[in-house]
Amino acid sequence: xxxxxxxxxxxxxxxxxxxxxxxxxxxxxxxxxxxxxxxxxxxxxxxxxxxxxxxxxxxxxxxxxxxxxxxxxxxxxxxxxxxxxxxxxxxxxxxxxxxxxxxxxxxxxxxxxxxxxxxxxxxxxxxxxxxxxxxxxxxxxxxxxxxxxxxxxxxxxxxxxxxxxxxxxxxxxxxxxxxxxxxxxxxxxxxxxxxxxxxxxxxxxxxxxxxxxxxxxxxxxxxxxxxxxxxxxxxxxxxxxxxxxxxxxxxxxxxxxxxxxxxxxxxxxxxxxxxxxxxxxxxxxxxxxxxxxxxxxxxxxxxxxxxxxxxxxxxxxxxxxxxxxxxxxxxxxxxxxxxxxxxxxxxxxxxxxxxxxxxxxxxxxxxxxxxxxxxxxxxxxxxxxxxxxxxxxxxxxxxxxxxxxxxxxxxxxxxxxxxxxxxxxxxxxxxxxxxxxxxxxxxxxxxxxxxxxxxxxxxx
Length: 460
What we know:
Layout: E1 27-30, H1 34-45, E2 50-54, H2 71-78, H3 81-87, E3 89-91, E4 93-97, E5 103-107, E6 119-121, H4 124-137, E7 141-144, E8 147-154, E9 157-164, E10 167-171, E11 175-178, H5 185-189, E12 193-195, E13 202-209, E14 222-227, E15 230-237, E16 241-248, H6 250-253, H7 260-268, H8 272-277, E17 282-283, E18 288-290, E19 295-297, E20 301-302, E21 305-307, E22 313-314, H9 322-342, H10 347-371, H11 375-382, H12 390-399, H13 406-425, H14 429-441, H15 449-459
Parallel strand pairs: 1-2, 1-11, 2-7, 4-14, 11-21
Antiparallel strand pairs: 3-6, 4-5, 8-9, 9-10, 12-19, 13-16, 13-17, 13-18, 14-15, 15-16, 19-22, 20-21
Helix pairs in contact: 1-4, 1-9, 9-10, 12-13
């Protein structure tokens, strides 16, 4: 794998500004997850003074354990690829059910213009800690157990109040990055956050020991299953742990009666193939629920501030895109901030270009996600065809290659045409599926145990 530069090599020292100090860094980042740490590492390596504030204490639980091959060049550039290899399960592909009772593996080595042919499944607590410690190692002032409470703007100057073990402290950075994830700190502050009008879902998930893994090289696959009310995942982790989740329509989640554990197990039983792999498995973690999965903010930036990753938008995690999109936006966002600090007169133009580029890639994932549970997509994934290298382009999408390859984008457009023609041949089932999806998009489910757990910790 060849390492490439994240952005233009600095040709001048950072422009003069307020003297950096303990409370006046060049850049302050809210959130110490993959997006925040990646941006912090890049900016520190470019010579900027960076402060990173994480409200929880590392290591801390987080969902989102499946990486994509396009994460690998990023991890290499950040200097953590070998550390991640040491904590992860090797992932060669993703598998989906076929029509004969088995499964088809979409191997990353078959991707069009493959940049990497593998990824890892990782325990997120360890993965995030690796990134956090790397940020510290390159000179980032990275602090955990420090919660940003308020952000105000003195003109265009960000002014933050944060509370840590030592009390309340004020920060006046030259630039503010929001990598707060689903907390969407600035999105809520500016009232920019909106539910995705085209797709809504909620999820139940936990960890189990003793779930049957795929044989041979498929042992590290993420396995995706469908059920009548959504889809399910199995993600193999180290020490015989399997992350198991069910993403469901809000309408179905509202039928929940009794405890979450029982409802979760009844939901998993809706798919006989997945249930067979879980015979004799033992649950080793609480069952979590998270609602109103998909959202986006109406804009991602403004004068001297920028949102990254889930702080800007979150899509259904069907294709494990979350960590990759967070880290990709962090790299590109950090390159933009570097240029904006050097050439502030071009900031607005740089921000618009960044948002256009990120939206284009996210929209590729969204198109597939919106249609994945349809009978049309079920048929196409069960019997893949590589005419005109279209299957290779779909594998490239599954690998995360949705930003920079015109050849991949062209073939994904051809796949959309095939999808449309196949849909016409499957009426009225396809029409019924479309109506169901549109109905679900108008509903919501407010049952987020992860957010509730976080709020409880914050008040303790």
